[in-house]
Structures are given as C-alpha cells and as structure tokens.
Predict the 3D structure of the following.
Amino acid sequence: MTEASVIMAKSVTIPELTDVPVHVGVIMDGNGRWAKKRGLPRKFGHREGVKVFRSITRRAKALGIKYITFYAFSTENWKRPKDEVDAIMELFEKNLDEVKDFIDEEIRVRFIGDRSALSPTLQAKMLNTEKSSEHFTGTTMILAINYGGQDEICRAAVKAAEKVKNGELDTADITPDVLSGFLDAPDIPPLDYVIRPSGEMRLSNFMIWQAAYAEYYFTDILWPDFKDEDFDKAIMEFANRGRRFGGVK
Ligand code: IPE
Ligand code: IPE
Ligand code: MG
C-alpha cells in the first residue's frame, strides 16, 4: 500500500469547528532536539519532520483551512553546519518529486523566500510544482524556503524603490497596502494564527509583516511528534480568541 492510500484508508474524524482561521502559519521547530533525544543525527529529525508536514497539510485541507504556510528554512539557517544544510536541501528536492500526491489531492503549492540562493535544480522543481497546481482553488500550501521576514520586507522596499526611480510610483503614495503589494505572495491574506511547537516563544523572523495581527499558539511538543490531533486542538483554541484589530468589540 502506498503512503497516500494508507492515509485514505484511515478513518478520520473531523472536529466540529466554529471559527477556522483563513491563514495559518506553522513554524516547524524541534526536529534537531527530537533526533538528539534518540541519539540520532539531526537530519533524522528533519526527515521525520517532513512526514508530519505532509500529514498536517492534508489535515488543514480536511479542516477547511484556505492557506497554510510552513516555515521550512530561514535566511538565518545557513549558519548551520554544511552537512545539515545539505541534508535539508536534499529533503526539499526529494519531497518536491513526491509532491504529486498533493497535486492528486488538489492542494495548490506555492513558495515564499529568496529563491536565488537555492540550487537551479531545486528552483526548477519549485516552479514546476507551482505551475502544476496553480489551478486549484481549495487549500493553498505555502512553503517558506530561504525565507526571512526582514529579508522579504527589504526586497519589497527595493522593488518599490525601483518603481520610484523609473517614475512609476510616487513616494507619497507608498502606504502599507502598496508596500505589501511587493511582498513575495501579495495576494495571500495576512496570518490569522501562528503555531509554534518545541517550546520556543518567538517568531524567528517568520512573516513579521503578515503576522502583525495574528494570534499565537505555542506548545512544547517537538515538531516530529506533532499529531493531527495536536493540530485540531490548536485550531479549536483559535475560536476562543477575541480579536479587535485595534478597535472596540
Ligand atoms: C526546525 O527544527 C527545522 C529547521 C529550522 C530547518 P530545528 O532543526 O531548528 O530543531 P531544533 O530547534 O534544533 O530542535
Ligand atoms: C525557525 O527555527 C526556522 C524554521 C523553523 C525554519 P529555528 O530553529 O531556526 O529558530 P531559532 O534559531 O530557535 O530562533
Ligand atoms: Mg530550532
């Protein structure tokens, strides 16, 4: 039986949800610690983390979440030992070959981050995956690779500056709305909810612009141990948050 058919065969109960966030961000953290606890090299944690990522993507679709962004590799993660970075890049390439089952399930796949530093093979696979899934309108899964919130804002500012230089944009017209039009995926709504496992309570440069009014959910569970039920629990908690966006309610 293939992995996909096992998932299909498993009977899944979908909880009754009253208020599902439109855009969920997930900071996949704790892979290294998961491996260390087992006396394994860190890359085994990343491999296990990919399985969870695949499962949670499907779960998000089942729960009716429109957009889910996973933080997979940050602009700061290049600081890690070369063998770990290489192992992560290899996992991306391998998994983009296997992404066909997401396409079979009609999940749209997109990427954010600075692609220019990635290998030409990986960049080609990313483009190919985006193209083969661009017509799906249900759930979009966004993978943040070589992504940094500050880097994204900086690149957006450069794009805006180019337009000013060419006389296509007036500085007086630069508002948050206009600037957000230069971000990597300008058509995707801001984050409603950010989930970070592994006990760390920080954003680590994840979508700092889009998270301006997000709600946060932190859990000590390490990402490779994060189950569909843990995701359900996090999503259910979202309904308890009273959002005001600076207004009065
Ligand atoms: C997250 O897990 C994966 C990446 C950042 C690529 P970590 O590798 O950061 O795991 P910990 O935080 O060291 O346990
Ligand atoms: C954030 O995790 C980046 C990703 C999950 C891709 P890190 O493990 O890199 O974050 P810090 O170093 O603990 O802040
Ligand atoms: Mg970490």
